[in-house]
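Sharing in case it's useful to others searching the archive later.

Someone asked me privately for the predicted structure of asparaginase, so I'm posting the question and my answer publicly. Question first, with the sequence:
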Amino acid sequence: MIAINGLLLLAATTLASPITPYVLTRQDVSTPQNASLPNVTIFATGGTIASQGTTNTQTVGYSVGLGVEDLIDAVPEILNIANIQGYQISNVGSPSINSTILLKLYSMVQAELAKPEISGVVITHGTDSLEETAFFLEMTINSTKAVVMVGAMRPATALSADGPLNLLQAVTLASSPKARGRGTMITLNDRIGSAYVTTKNHANSLDTFYSAEAGQLGFFINQVPYFYYEPAKPVGLVNFDLTNTTALPKIDVLYAHQDMDPGLFQGAILLGAEGLVVAGMGAGGVSSAASEVLETIYNTTSIPLVSSRRSAEGFVSPGDYMIAGGFYNPQKARILLQLAVAAGRSREEIREVFALNYPS
Ligand SMILES: *[C@@H]1O[C@H](CO)[C@@H](O)[C@H](O)[C@H]1NC(C)=O
Ligand SMILES: *[C@@H]1O[C@H](CO)[C@@H](O)[C@H](O)[C@H]1NC(C)=O
Ligand SMILES: *[C@@H]1O[C@H](CO)[C@@H](O)[C@H](O)[C@H]1NC(C)=O
Ligand SMILES: *[C@@H]1O[C@H](CO)[C@@H](O)[C@H](O)[C@H]1NC(C)=O
Ligand SMILES: *[C@@H]1O[C@H](CO)[C@@H](O)[C@H](O)[C@H]1NC(C)=O
Ligand SMILES: *[C@@H]1O[C@H](CO)[C@@H](O)[C@H](O)[C@H]1NC(C)=O
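And my answer, the predicted structure tokens:
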């Protein structure tokens, strides 16, 4: 039984909405110091890893509720690996993570990694949008120290809950000198993946994070992280300095399909979008009606339009007016476009940023 410290009350939370934000009662955590251990900081944002169901067989429709201290309490083995500082950034399901939380996370992670005594950081996060936050940090954090994103597919109350072991592995990874220079990593279910390419592939299964084309960086055996490769910088990686950034622009993703209403593109712009990503069919295809509307937007505005794909994997090739998303899936293309627009890049400059990711 894991330590949930009186928070069982929360299990009575209504299941009508799948994820209910919880008002925190406890925030920052500091474990006893052992000067011979590395120092790791955990930033908790919510998600399934911080969730409780009403029974030990409930694996959907549960509520977020556990604070960062509960997560650490559930895995006392962590204290043999690192001294932990814990901060609660938010406590929401990851569909509710937004750009305000991303910017807060960026500034806290960047500041923490600048401290010489810190080996690395762990971010606990819901899995649904974990890859977006991970990619955002990959493209912004300027440090060779380990940034490890972790979550769980089963709530803390479930039989065979995966959160505690995932968290132990994440802290181990953040403590490991071998993890340096590898950018932001995602670890769940024994696997270690690069935030640059890793994506969520299964809505329910524990083994959900992988990258079919680029593969995994490494694997855990008996809590020891093994890497398949030396640290490497992926082609296309850029670093945006967000020191003076206080807000991120609104960028929308629109999903193409048969009979798609092209008015949706204009609607998104009327609602304030400063850039659009189109999850096109196949390698980025849209209907001729949609194409004409997109070309009109291109001709009459300076709004950047990025073409990505609704296919799970693959490359979208450069075209005339759309900026090709290359290998980026729509959600990663959206984060990159958001960062590039925030940095004040023009449409043609943004085209060059995306082109860095094309094979050369
Ligand atoms: C501190 O950590 C070291 C290395 O893991 C361990 O050998 C030692 O027993 C720890 N000291 C205490 C007081 O826990
Ligand atoms: C962890 O932090 C403490 C306190 O700042 C420091 O004394 C210790 O050297 C740090 N550990 C490592 C491995 O850097
Ligand atoms: C993000 O969500 C928080 C509440 O969780 C809210 O205060 C903030 O205004 C939101 N930011 C944006 C950009 O919507
Ligand atoms: C990253 O940090 C290095 C050294 O601290 C610095 O020289 C470089 O300008 C920084 N890059 C960005 C994009 O901020
Ligand atoms: C942030 O603002 C300060 C003060 O105006 C300036 O010196 C610095 O160059 C700016 N940094 C970036 C990355 O824009
Ligand atoms: C966009 O502008 C180009 C170049 O002026 C023109 O050939 C094309 O017909 C325009 N497309 C639309 C849909 O207005």
